[in-house]
Design brief:
The chain is of the alpha/beta class and 486 residues long. The protein has 15 helices and 17 strands. The strands form three sheets. An eight-stranded mixed beta sheet has the order 7-8-10-9-13-17-14-15, sandwiched between helices. Strands 1-6-5-2-4-3 form a six-stranded mixed beta sheet, with helices on both faces. It has a three-stranded mixed beta sheet with strand order 11-12-16, with helices on one face. A hairpin with a 2-residue loop joins strand 3 and strand 4.
Amino acid sequence: MAGIVLVSATAKEPLDTDADTIAVGVFADEQPPGANPSELGDLLASGEARSTFKSLALTHAAGRRWLVAGLGEREDFTPERARVIGAVVRERARELATAALCVRLPNDLAAEVPAALTEGVVLADYRFERFKSASEEQDTRAKHLERLVVCASEHQRVGVEQAAIVAQAVNAARDLQNRPANDLTPGELAEYARALASEIEPLRVEVEGRDAISAHGMGAFAAVAQGSEQEPALITMRYEHPQASGPLLGFVGKAVTFDSGGISLKPGAKMSEMKFDMSGGAAVIEAIAAIARLGLPVRVLAVVGATENLPSGRAVKPGDIVRASNGKTIEVNNTDAEGRLVLADCLHHAVSLGAERLIDLATLTGAVIIALGSTYAGLISNDDELAQRLDLAGRQTGEIVWRLPLHEEYSELLKGTYGDLDNAPEARKAGTIVGGAFLSNFVGETPWAHLDIAGSAWDLGRPYAPKAASGYGVRLLVELARSYAS
């Protein structure tokens, strides 16, 4: 993980800070904001610097490096574009071995714009180096920022500070995702959650193992876990602000720390990427941690099911029938459709603990990648109001979602021959929707939304998260929680 970037907001002009590199954003047909050296105007006049979106030009003045960053047309500038500008500026600053970066945008922008810019810089600063051998030639200053100073007005300052907290949580989730399965076992993920709870006072955590999972009647979760020698973990985290008055939010995350497919073994190509099958759990853990750090006046319950899915002499077999904690029986006709088995019991567990709004995140189906690529996460919900909140939160954070239908005919495909449900119907129709329809059997009447993040959890392809883990879902869940804050 990148070293923690120290972020601050200031009403000062960039020259009054100690930043070694200063980036100034310029809209089309406008002059650079604030008091700047004449060299910036000269650079624009010469055409070397342009106001075209994402264009960058470098000059030196007053003993500093100056980047002129094109913002494009003012009316087209959104928080997502601010994130992209933050990432583009960060990458150029990296080439310049920047230690302290100051970014100046026009002051008359909405408060969410400098906050989004902050996210873009901090997310783009991320590097996963846990297993890189140290080298004397490595210049850590060239790799990571020490400080980011954002020129912001008083009403923008809080947003910048909060954005820094959330972006660091995203990077922490990316660290969890990027760790290999021999390093991040279910037990290690549980210990990580415990460590967070000891660090953040309002957080509480409970971890239960194989025996407790069985004692809870979680036959579906237990079936997935039985093929691995690693102890599974049912991780339950709680945060409750004393002034919260809204519903108890239930965040449920799939955390299969490695998914081989079990007896229904996956092809070898890119199986190494199945360490990312715990991405939903990572997002849930870091989201509740960020909510607690922010002190949002909400109540949140997080349930994460952590296990490996491996073939062995004791692994669940195709054709086996298991009983979930709500009493429904499931024909396990494909052991590679294991995520829905883990989530089934975790969703019911969250309901039994009193969750009044449920949101689950899971890398559930490859079908969602075919349907939506990496641009949108798939959203399936039994509640219009909750779906609308998630859609708005997605548009505000750039973690956008696309709602898919939950029609009763899809449930017909899930009827089992020998049990209540079939976890992998032979008819290869509407794979993402059928996965969501399966999960709907375990939420009762509770308003619920399922987010299939298989296309968004890694290799997102955005300037602030181009390759490997993206931490998708942390910012979305935090923004959703904000919508319930009273």
